[in-house]
Design brief:
The protein has 165 residues and is an alpha/beta fold. The protein has a single domain, classed as 3-Layer(aba) Sandwich (Rossmann fold). Helix content is 25%, strand content 37%. The protein contains 3 helices and 10 strands, in the order βαβαβββαβββββ. It has a 6-stranded mixed β-sheet with strand order 4-3-2-5-6-7, sandwiched between helices. A two-stranded parallel ribbon has the order 1-8. A two-stranded antiparallel sheet has the order 9-10. Helix 1 crosses helix 2. The two termini are 18 Å apart.
């Protein structure tokens, strides 16, 4: 298990932005909502580029989970005729990124490339900051509000041994 804290997240975002900028400069960055919005916004800020999001989810409602992801809503109109970097937090099979790229291409983007903070499976995005086979715990996912207070996320019960500070 890899527990990503905020300082490591910042360094991963910086490394990802540098890798992209050294090879190719997009016109706009699109983060895959929900979790890809965080690194996407950080990369866009580092590159001093406009940022948008696209909602692709495996969930219909909090209690229903889809096996495959689906696009919810439209791709941002600002991608038409632009070079677009699609950013997500992690990728395994690439299903979510492929959907995002398809939606962005259908919205008229001139060129689309993909980037993730952490590669966890066989799919190879155009850019990544780190690769591992470990289970990832992201800093914005370690704690959740329950009954009006921050608590360790129950989905990691028994897996996280270090205290959250």
């Amino acid at each position: 298990m890899l527990v990503v804290d905020w300082p490591l997240f910042g360094e991963l975002s910086r490394a990802l932005a540098v890798r992209v900028a050294r090879e190719w400069m997009p016109d706009v960055v699109v983060g895959v909502a929900t979790a890809g919005v965080v690194p996407g916004a950080a990369v866009a800020a580092i590159l001093d580029l406009p940022f948008h999001s696209i909602l692709i989810s495996r969930r219909y409602h909090a209690d229903q989970v889809r096996e495959t992801p689906a696009v919810f809503g439209a791709a941002p109109g600002d991608v038409r005729g632009k070079r677009v970097l699609v950013v997500d937090e992690t990728c395994d099979s690439g299903a979510t990124l492929r959907l995002a790229v398809g939606a962005i291409v259908n919205a008229g983007a001139r060129e689309v490339r993909t980037a993730v903070s952490i590669v966890t499976g066989s799919y190879a995005p155009d850019y990544h900051a780190f690769a591992t086979q470990a289970m990832i715990v992201l800093p914005w996912d370690r704690e959740v509000f329950l009954d009006g207070e921050l608590h360790p996320n129950p989905k990691y019960a028994g897996l996280l041994t270090d205290p959250i500070v």
